[in-house]
Structure formats: structure tokens, C-alpha cells
Amino acid sequence: MTNNASAAWAVFKKKKYHIIIPFTLPSLLLFLVFVVYPYGQAMYFSLTKWRGLTPRPTFIGLANFEKLLGDSLFWNALSHNLIYLVSIPAITIIIALYLAFLLTHGKARFRRFYRITFFFPQVMSLVAIGVLWSFIYHPTIGILSSIAGLLGAAEPIAWLGNPDLALLAVGAVVVWQAVGFYVVLFIAGMESIPVSYYEAATIDGASRWHLFWHITLPLLWDTIRTALVFLAIGATNMFAITQTMTQGGPNRSTDVLSTYVYERAFLSGKFGYATAVAVAMFLLAFALSVLTMRATRRETLEY
Amino acid sequence: MMNKLKQADAAPEDFSANRLSRWTTQSLLNFSLVFWALLVILPMVWLLYSSFKTDQEIFFDPWSLPSEMQWQNFERAWVTVHVGQYFINSMKVVVPSLILTLALSSMTSYVLARFRFFGNRALFFLFMAGMLFPIFMALVPLFFLAKDLQLLNTFLGLILVYTAYSLPFTIFFLTGFFKTLPSELHEAALIDGANEYVVFFRVMLPLAQPGLVAMAIFNFLGMWNQFILPLVLMTERENYVLPQGLSFMLHQQYYKSDWSALFAAVTIIMIPTLAVYVVFQNQIQKGVTVGALKG
Amino acid sequence: MKRELSRRDFLKSSGALAAGVLASQALPFAAAQDGLPFEVAPEAMNPLGLEAGANVEGVFFEGGFGRSYIDNAADIFRALHPENEMSVEGIQQVSEILRPRFIGGNPPDVIDNSGAFNIPMDSLVADDQLADLGPLMAAPALDTPEKTFAETLFPGSQENGVFDGRQLYLNIAYTVSGIWHSQSLFEEKGYDYPRTWDGLMGLCETIKSDGIAPWTYQGKFPGYMVFGCLHHLIHKTGGIQTIYDLDNLVDGVWQSDAVLQALNMMYQLVENDYILPGTEGLTHTESQAEWLQGNAAFIPCGTWLENEMRELTPDGFNMVIKPLPGPDESTYDSLGAWPGEPYIVPKNAANVVGGMEFMRCMLSKANAGFFAKEISAIMPVFGGSESVELSGALTSALQAVEAANGGFNVLYGGWYSDLRTQVNNSTGELMTGRITPEQFAETVQASADAVKADSDIPKYTRA
Q1: How far apart are CA A297 and CA A291, in angstroms?
Q2: Is the predicted pLDDT of residue A55 greater than 90, yes or no?
Q3: Does the pLDDT of residue B185 top 80, yes or no?
């Protein structure tokens, strides 16, 4: 840095609060008022009994959390979140990696077309997707049922009416919706890997699988990690799609924490208890994100 | 960053070593791609042509093409179910929220990324903490807050709330982005006597454009799909945003059995999204790419 | 001063309103020119003291009964009080839409709190959100001279709305529930409606061999099978005392012999494969549409069915309602009939008097006549269906209630929403063969025990 520059820099540094304050204050205010303050209040509500019809909660200490431990419906909803959490990110990433690899390394025609098509569900409203798939799964008017019929199923399958299938059916829609996004993401990641790496390996006679396993995957690790985090956050929510398609039914087989909170609060009027469930959900999300970051922390390969 | 994108242009073509199995591999490969493409396209096509059928045809003959084009389904969806109104409402909320989010977070991120000052880290982590909270927790207090501030059932209220909840991730992302920008330009501009505001708006913002586009897309998708916040904060039907309107319609159909109008409504919503997407898909996909590789 | 007016003109105009554009809140009442379709005694004009200019906001569940009868009542209100505006909005998800307004302290003035997504009455009562309708009950009736409003209502029809001596809600429909079939189909196939459960099972076998599914129910909402079938069977196996025991949370009642027998009877439908495949994935209107298409022979439902499915009902279908046959012929006649479709006036509403005044119009003889004629359903109002030509479905319902000497009513569902949810969910499981009657009894009993043990839930009893 020249003398001239450092002098200018020094002047600038003195005046830096002229920019720091006006540039941070509006964001900070908005954030404090609409995010921090409500969350603080929620912490308090979770310690109260409140039916949500009057603005006067009754303080009851940790009773809600005590009740929560013995609430089988809470554990039921939580178990579904965990199932989603284990399956959706893994399945989505595997399918997306596979398709992305094909599109970068294969000789497939119409690559552009595939990329555009795969991504499309991502821009559709989740509620619209939920409505659309409710019809696809419909036992009498749905196309899936008709296909099953053609394949020899004797009876129409009530995908969303059968507690054994409903969770799978809802999860599949989420995968369907998400895959395209990650295909595009992984393609971008794969294309940024220098060609020379592959060339060298190919000369050594490596197979496609070998290339994928030993070059693509390690170099893509950071992107996959990002994908895992996004998908995990999604799997702890699942509200819009579940509420639209099943509302947690049949017999709570697709209940997740978010729909359970919603039901307890806005349908059963147990606002204090519902907020306690939401706080528990937050603690879970917090623990999970820490765990995910830990588990996937690995030496990043520089290139 | 720049380098990476350049290399992308020279993507590897084909490294298949085993020429013997090439044909099989190729067909398998194509089959997978075609399969997934059909999986995406078929439901939409089915939706599209079903929305031209009568209720009777939809219910009792789900596969058949419409015997006659029922344009009035669209009329019903548009006029009596107010899909158009919901669409406009959504735009009224999402566009200003998006602009506000980008403006506020780019300013804050710039400062957090480029200036050392007391409380910088604390501020950054405070915003980051916002990413961890499930929105559910805040619903009830948020409702009261909006009510006390006279923001319940107003577009302004929803815009402020959308913006506030978009800040954490956007700031997190843009701070990282600003940190990667070269500082030479910044200093050069200062030497030339430009004041710090000019530097930000004339030099830094244009440089940050890929990051801003990425965040615009991320946030657009999130806000466009937002369901739970308007559910609680927009309780008057004429102010409903699209996801709310659709859900209302779905429940109405439980009692009115007007499947065809519901199909038509979903089609009406899908078509403009599809059009916008096809036109801008390049920018959208680039935005996603930038987002992912940085985030 | 007495207002005179022509009944025929009124019916014509309100009928036209009902049939025509329904989104007509803004339309001025056609007959507002000069008054009402009936004579109103001076003391009945405004007994509650509604102030001129105090507008009334009504938000109503718009379900099986539609909204024309609400518009009709609003038209009566507007004619009676030309100085007051009345708005009518129809919604489906009552809780989702109105709860924020309760919290906000500005609920509408009158609400039809019905449907699958209503605000549980138990929490409204416990949080003291409902206006005491005492003044309304004691006020002169609108179009029944010399009677108070309360005296024009069927005895017992408003009993379940009384909490600690206060009338907190009003039921505007008298619903009969039972098993529906198409008389035309039965005549065509030569089926006779059986008088015993075994007879019913025999008939189901015949129907099945004719290639028709004997039963369907409102799959996604298994509650229909509870009030339309399970409660009936329990009444038939255990008598009214067992029903009282359910309501009073008597220990072990869900695992008693009577309930288990009823569950086992219902379970035969599953064991013998009598239920239309795919039923569990259908909404109520969808399953009812299947039934109307002749894909299933029987469906449980209440008397709103006819109106709800009017547009999809094939000509000459001739739907009729019958009691569910019991173990032996002596129990054939009993069936469930209860006042339903509860309306409330929130305590914190801006215009409580206006809300009550609207209820006087809603439950007037004139509106009850409209309800019977246009909606084919009954209001618990004396003389409501006189000189009205009733549909075949409604006639069959009235005959059934008469034969049963009045229907029985089950209250635990309204008192304890958690228990109701559990019974509904478990019924869904039972009807898909995923649990046995014994497991049903055990699960539901556990839920009843939990409700009983929960000191936060206010308890009620009946005898």
C-alpha cells in the first residue's frame, strides 16, 4: 500500500461509523422487532397454559415440557421427522448426483432440456404441488392408481388413505420436488472440477465409476454438505406439503412436529403447550445442525 | 470463483473408457434421464388436460382426454375463486419484500464483511441465530405484535415480516460473498476521493451482482411459497396470497366437489410460473450455482 | 303498528336470491321496500333493543347446507331492520380463519361454528368467549305470536348448548343420522331393507355377488362412521345407559361387552370385505359421489346429505335413510338424531345484540320453512315444516325419527375433543382392518382415561 493510500484509508477509518450505523441499523431494528422479540416471547409462552382465545396466558413453569415427555403424539410426530430426516436428504442427493453425473459426463442429448425440466418443480408453489399430487395419489381419479391397475393391482390403492403408505407418498413428493434443484447444483459443482483431473485418470484407464468415486465425489464434498444442510432444514419443517396433502392423517401417520404444533395451537387451542413443542423442535434443529456440521467436517480438497 | 466458471465452459465431454459396454451404458443413461423427465412432465400434462374436463369426466374417466374443452372451468377459477386476485396479492407482497431484503442485507453484509468495529462478530452471530429458529415458535407472538402495530391484515405487515425472516440467510450468504471480492478496487476508489457511499453503490454492488441475483432467486422461491406466515397474518380473504387461496379452494372443494375449477386454478398458477421460469432459467440456474458454490 | 306483507312475494324474491348469484352480500334486499313476509307483533319488532346503524357481521361455516338459508335469514333481518347492515361470509376452515380474530378481541357478531375444522366448543366455553343468550331465549319469537323465542324451539333441542345454566350456543338444524340407500336401486335389484344385523349381512353378501360394493363411508373423515354407525350399534347393544356411560367417562365402558359387541358387528364389514376398495382415500363428497354412481349400496350420513350432493345426484336416485338394524328386531327402530350446526355469538363481538337478533331471524318459522323446502332439512322450530312439501329423503328421515320415538344423542364428542379425535382415528384404523375391535377398545379407553385424568379439561355429566 502506498503512503497516499494509507492516508486515505486512515481518514476513511475515522469516518467509518458514518457508514456502519446507517447500513446496519435498519436491518437490526427489523430483525429485533420481528424475529428476536417474538422468539423471546415464545420462550415465555412455552411456560404457560394458554388456550389462545384470550391474551392472558397463565404461568405454569416447566409443566408443558414434563407433559411433552409423556405425550405419545409428540413422539409419533418426531419419529416421522426423523424418518424424513434420514431418508429424504440421502435419497434426493443420490438421485441428484446420479442425474448430474450423467448430464456432465455422458453423451446425453438435450442436456439443456433435461436441466430445465428437472428444475421446474422447484419453482412451483408447494401448495400447488400438494394439490396436484393429492390428485395423482387419489384412489379413483388419480393416475397412479390407474397405473397400478394396469400393472394388475386388483384394488385401487389409497396412497394417502393408508397409514402404511402415506408417509412414503408425502416424502416421495418432496424428493420429486427437490431433485431438480440439486441436479443443477451438482452440475455446477462438477463442471468446476478441472478437466485435467479426469484426463489424467482416464489415461490411467479408470472406469466411469472410478472417476465418480475418486474424483467427483471428494471434490464435490462441500457442495454436498451444503445440500445436506438445506435438505435437513426442509425435513424438519414439512408443513406446507403435509398440511395440503394429509393434514397429518390418516390416524396421525404423517403427522410431523410442525403440523402437530399447528394442530395443538390453532385447532385444539393449546397454545402454551404447542409453543413448548415448537421450542423442543428448535432445540432439536439446533442440536442437529451442530451434529451435521461436525459429522460432515472433513478436510476440504483444494484445487 | 471466476476461474471456476470459465472452466465450466470447457466441461469434459466423455471419458468412457470401456467402448464395448458403451451402447448399454448409453441406453441405461438415457433411460434414467428420460424416466425422470417423464416423472416431472407427465403430472403436469395430466393436470393441464384434466383442467379442460368436466367434473364427471375427471371423476369417472381420469385418463381420457376432454370430450369438449371446458373453458368455463378457467372462468370459474378466475372469477368465483379469485385466483387472479390471489396472484396479484402475492406479487404485492413478494416484490417489495424482495427489494427490501436485498437492499437491507447487502448494506449490512457489506459493513459486516469489510469493516472492523466493536461488536461486528456479535452482530453477525445474532443474525445467524435467526436461521435456527423454526418459524412456528414465533407465530403466536408475531400475531399479537402485528396486531399491536396495526399491521395485521396489511401488505406492509407481511412485507416487513417476510423481510425480517429473510435477513439471516441473506446476510450470512452476502457477507461471505463480499469477503471474496478483491479489496484493491475498493481502495483505489477511495484514493480517487470517492466517499464511502459512492464506493458501495458504484463499485461494490455491481461486483456483488451474481450474489444478489442468487439471493433474489432463493428468497423469491421462499416467499412465493410462504404459507404459514400469511395464514396467521392475513386473515381477510380479499388479502389472501396464492398458497392460502389455493388451500382455501382445496377445502371448499371438499364441500362443493368442483374438481375441474381446482385443476384449472392450479393450471392458471402454473402457466405464468412456467413461462417466467423458461425465460429466465439461465439466470435462475446460474443464481443457484453461485449460491451453492459460495454458501 | 303491524307490518303487512305478502308472503308469496317474499318467498319468490328470496328464492331467486338463493338460486342466483350467491355472492350477494352487497345486493340490497329486494323486498326491503316494504317489510317482511309475515306479521310481526309490535313487541317482537326489536325486543333486544338493537340500535339503528349498528351493523352485524356474520361469518358462517358453509358446508352441506350451503348458504342460501343464511342469506334468507339475513334478508329477513335486513327487512326487519332496514337501518342496520348485515354481512354474510361463508367459510370452511372456521378455526383457521376465526381464531386469530378471537385472539385479537374482534370476533364477528355471529358465527356458524361447524364443520370438520371448527373451533372446539370446549375451549370457547372454558375461555369464556361466548355470550349468554339468555335475553334472546326470553325475548318474543319473531313470527310465532305470544311465544318466547325459547318456547318455539323443540324441547331438548338446545340442551347441549347449556353450560352452568347459561345458553351459550344454539343448534339450528335437527339432524337425523342413519344408513342411506337408493330406493330405485333396491327396487330394481329386488332387495329388501333388512330388520336385523344378520339380515343386513346376508343382504350385503347378495349385493357383493351382484358386483356392487355393499358399503362405503367418508374415508378421510372416519367420524361419519362413528356417528352414523358405531354409536347406533352401541345404543342397540347396550341401550341408552351405555351411551350415557360413554359421555360420563365411566371407567372401562369402551371395553364393556356392549361396546365390544358393537365393534365386532361393525368389524364384520371389514372381515367380509364389504367396503368399497379405496374408500379410505376419499373425502366425504368423493365417497358420496361414488355411492351416487351406484358403486356402493350403503353409506352412513346425516340429513344434510341430500342437499350436499344435489348437483351430483342422478335423476330418479330416490335416496332414503333407514335406521341401522340391530342384533334383533326389537332394537331396529332406534337411531341417532340430534340438534346440530351450532351458532354462537361471541362475548367480545362488537354487536352482541345484533348477533342475537340475527339468531331470532335464523330460527324463525319463516326461515325454518325455507330450510325444509330448499335445503330438505329440519330446523328445531315448531311449525317450521308445516305447509311445506318435503322431499322423499326428508320424509323418510321424519318417519324414522317418529318410529324411534325421537332419536338419541351422544355428547362426549362435543365435550372432549381429544377423545373424539381418538375415536375417529381408531375407527379409520378399524375400518381398514389395521386394528382389531379389542385393540380399538383398548386404545380408546386409554384416551378416555387420559381425558378423565386431565384436570385441565372441564368435565360434564348427563343422566
Answers
A1: 10
A2: no
A3: no
Q: Are residues C273 and C323 in the same domain?
A: yes
Chain C residues in contact with A160 by the CB 8 A cut-off are: 281
Chain A partners (3+ C-beta pairs within 8 A)? B, C
Which of C101, C111, C284, C285 to probe by mutation at the B interface, max B CB count within 10 Å? C285
**In chain B, what percentage of residues exceed pLDDT 70?**
87
Predicted confidence at residue C38, as pLDDT, reads 77
Q: Which stretches in chain C have pLDDT values below 50?
A: 1-34
Asked if residues B215 and B173 have their Cβ atoms less than 8 Å apart, the reply is yes
> How far away is chain A from the Cα of C346, in angstroms, using its nearest Cα?
11
Query: Do residue A161 and residue C219 have CB atoms under 8 angstroms apart?
Result: yes
Can you give the pLDDT at residue B290?
64
In a domain, residue B274? The reply is no
Mean pLDDT of A194-204: 79
C216 touches chain A (CB under 8 A): no
Domain total in chain C: 2
Residues with Cβ within 8 Å of B293's Cβ and at least 6 positions away in sequence, in order, are A188, A189, A192, A223, B1, B4
What's the CA gap between C89 and B31, in Å, rounded? 53
Query: Among residues 285-304 of chain C, which lie with CB inside 8 Å of chain A?
Result: 286, 290
A41 alpha carbon, distance to own chain's centre: 26
Yes or no, beta carbons of C308 and B235 under 8 Å apart: no
What backbone torsions phi and psi does residue C248 show, to the nearest 5 degrees?
-85, 10
List phi, psi (to 5°) of C170.
Answer: -125, 130
CB contact under 8 A, B232 and C311: no
Q: Which fold has domain A82-247?
A: MetI-like fold (1.10.3720)
What Å distances lie between residue A248 and A126, A241, A257, B181, C439, CA to CA? 16, 10, 10, 47, 22
- Determine, yes or no, domain membership for C16: yes
In a domain, C291, yes or no: yes
Answer whether A163 sits within 8 Å of C102, measured CB to CB. Answer: no
> A161 vs C434: CB contact, 8 Å cut-off?
no
